[in-house]
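Lines hold sequence, tokenised fold; shown next:
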Amino acid sequence: MKVIVLSDNRSANPDYQTEHGLSVYVETSEYRYLLDTGASGLFIRNAAIAGVDLSLVDYVILSHGHSDHTGGLDAFLRINHSAKIIISDLALSQRLYSKRNGFREIGSSVDVRRVTDRMMYVDGLCAINNEARVFRLTETPFPTPLANSTLYKGEPEHVQPDDFSHEIVVVIGNDKPFVFTGCAHKGLLNILHAVRTQLNTEPGIVFGGFHLVDSTVGQSYETTETITSLADQLIHEYPDTRFFTGHCTGDSACSILKSSIPDYLYQFGVGDLYTF
């Protein structure tokens, strides 16, 4: 399996451009996947630099309805005319908002009516092909990220807290599979627990944002102690799993995780290529 980061907040390579968004290209021996499309068409420019031909992608899977993960879908559809589009049945039917750094709408504005024959809507556990599955979490026995408290859904005059029913988890492979978390709004430990209990397998690679947003003046989220405790749980419960994170995992949170489990946690950026 080859994995290339095409859109993210960070990059160690000046040849690539960054944005507040996430898009990851995954290629196996059988299929090509695009996991999320970033906030814009920027991932297409980065893909060209990385030597990735996005017109050959077989599946584009959107982890949830926020625009920093779906904003590039229109641009993708202009260069790819065959890929199936997998998304929660609730991701495009709800208006979504954030009050962090000012109240604003952050839902998807993509019009998919012209590609209805390519859409695959997910409600529950769904097998995409012989190696990939997606599912929506229905149980959260472990805590969810504190920064979720800034996110809402509904009509502007009647907003309510977002329950992230529009979020799906992507699992590629069968033995110690690759797990894509998107932003992990439902909580990293809840995602891993669901992979173990629903799919009866142990995650091998976990890749994506963990929504551990760094605290700022007037906005407090996970403490150092909480993140350290999370790291302890990860290494104790999933000793054979490796974690790759970026996007909505803040610099401070990444630093704490890396110092706690240095051989298990890696921070990614645009242009990074991994072979698993």
Remarks:
- The radius of gyration is 17 Å.
